[in-house]
Amino acid sequence: MIGISSLKSDYEGGASFILEALKKRNESLIDSIQSYKKGMYLYNEDAYPKGVFYILEGNVKLVRSADTGKERIVRLAGRNDIIGYRALLIGSSYKTSARALEKTEIVFLSSKLFHELICCPGINDQLIKLLANDMELSELKWINMSTRSLKSRIAELLISFKNKYGLLEDGKTLNIVLDREEFAEIVGVSVEAIIRRFNELKNEGIIETYGRNIQLLNIPALKLIVK
């Protein structure tokens, strides 16, 4: 079975083609760069888009309100990703809210500028690939939730975090920080279930945790769990 962590694409730098297109047009980014502190919202669910957000630095969680009033993480976005573009393209309201996980800098592209960019040669094809990859990731997420064990899903997610966000200088610690509740929301289980599986992986010498930081001690073992 193809896993999320093994997905590759022709745009390995996320949506960096958008930034390159801006540079070719000699667009000034100074006035459009916005900074968000941890916890701040970039946009809110049910609002209508006025443009799209290109992430220069930092990480963002896309969340949706549950019937209980709590937010549920749908997915994460990071450096070189664009968010909010699907709602803009189909003319609908946002189906999620976007909230900064840490200090985050973005380039805001107005609706007019974004539509001009996607008319540029090559950009439209890249955007279609981006949409297709997002759809495949979404499908795989639901397939994994119904067919794979919780331990396998956690291992898969840890590997995908390594591939997307990388490791710190120690070569072990994931370069993204999530609390257990956020991790549980992404996987779709209780916090208690996440803690139990984390402890299991720690006892097996596969990971270690320090507060909200996660170290990957045995990546080959994680890959075996996924298989």
Mean pLDDT: 84
The radius of gyration computed from the alpha-carbon positions, rounded to a whole number of angstroms, is 18 Å
Helix content: 40-55%
If classified by CATH, what would the architecture of the largest domain be?
Sandwich
The end-to-end distance, rounded to whole angstroms, is 8 Å
Q: Give the beta-strand count.
A: 10
The assigned structural class equals alpha+beta
Largest sheet properties? 4 strands, antiparallel
Strand content: 15-25%
**CATH topology type of the largest domain:** Jelly Rolls
Low-confidence stretches: 1-12
- Strand line-up of the largest beta sheet: 1-8-3-6
What's a concise summary of this model?
The protein has helices spanning 16-24, 85-90, 111-117, 123-147, 150-165, 180-187, 191-203, 219-226, and strands spanning 33-36, 41-43, 51-57, 60-65, 71-77, 82-83, 97-100, 104-110, 207-210, 213-216.
